[in-house]
């Protein structure tokens, strides 16, 4: 476990979330890709419960995963939904594969975001590649929106690594939110549905009912 992971684990987190990362996700992570092993909720619950049964529902596991997402310890792949079951799915541990030299340098100091903040170019490229951000180009407006949001939250103190990581996650969410309404998203691909008028059985029966009364 590297210094970036330890730093992230020292942020406000519940102890069960720390146990989930350190004893379940981290030992089985692929050090080349950052991919975790398959999440098996049954095994995770057994690990977390120990001698007392506190975790019995999948949504409790998802709540812990959300904690880990918030501090940058894991990323949810674009074809998964954190609000649905991730049983038998995999998540990404970005801090596992980023080069340690970059990690240590960018984790040295924490501060609130500032007006002319920019992401670290090299780290941005590495993280964007890791989380599957296809469109890596960003505009001054996107950076400005990100900075403006966090300027209003001066109590949030993060390292430059963590700010860059948050910016990558922000861009990924923005890209997904801009899926055109006339297109359907399947995984990370977009398809244009064929134009058609579909009438379900209830609607058809209603039409036939009123037609017979005429």
From TrEMBL:
Listed InterPro entries: DnaT_DNA_bind
Name of one Pfam family that matches: DnaT
DnaT DNA-binding domain mapped to chain residues: 112-178
Protein name: DnaT-like ssDNA-binding domain-containing protein
Organism: Alteromonas arenosi
């Amino acid at each position: 476990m590297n210094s970036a992971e330890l730093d992230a684990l020292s942020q406000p987190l519940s102890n069960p979330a720390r146990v989930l990362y350190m004893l379940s996700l981290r030992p089985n992570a692929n050090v080349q890709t950052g991919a975790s092993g398959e999440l098996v909720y049954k095994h995770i619950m057994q690990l977390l419960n120990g001698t007392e049964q506190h975790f019995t529902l999948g949504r409790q596991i998802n709540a812990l995963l959300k904690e880990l997402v918030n501090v940058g310890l894991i990323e949810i792949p674009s074809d998964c939904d954190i609000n649905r079951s991730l049983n038998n799915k995999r998540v990404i541990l970005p801090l596992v594969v980023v080069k340690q030299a970059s990690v240590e340098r960018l984790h040295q100091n924490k501060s609130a975001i500032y007006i002319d903040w920019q992401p670290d170019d090299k780290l941005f490229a590495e993280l964007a590649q890791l989380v599957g951000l296809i469109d890596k180009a960003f505009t001054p407006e996107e950076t400005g929106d990100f900075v403006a949001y966090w300027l209003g939250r001066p109590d949030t103190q993060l390292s430059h690594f963590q700010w860059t990581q948050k910016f990558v996650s922000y861009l990924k969410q923005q890209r997904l939110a801009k899926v055109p309404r006339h297109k359907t998203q399947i995984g990370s691909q977009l398809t244009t549905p064929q134009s058609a008028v579909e009438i379900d059985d209830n609607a058809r029966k209603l039409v036939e009912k009123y037609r017979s009364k005429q």
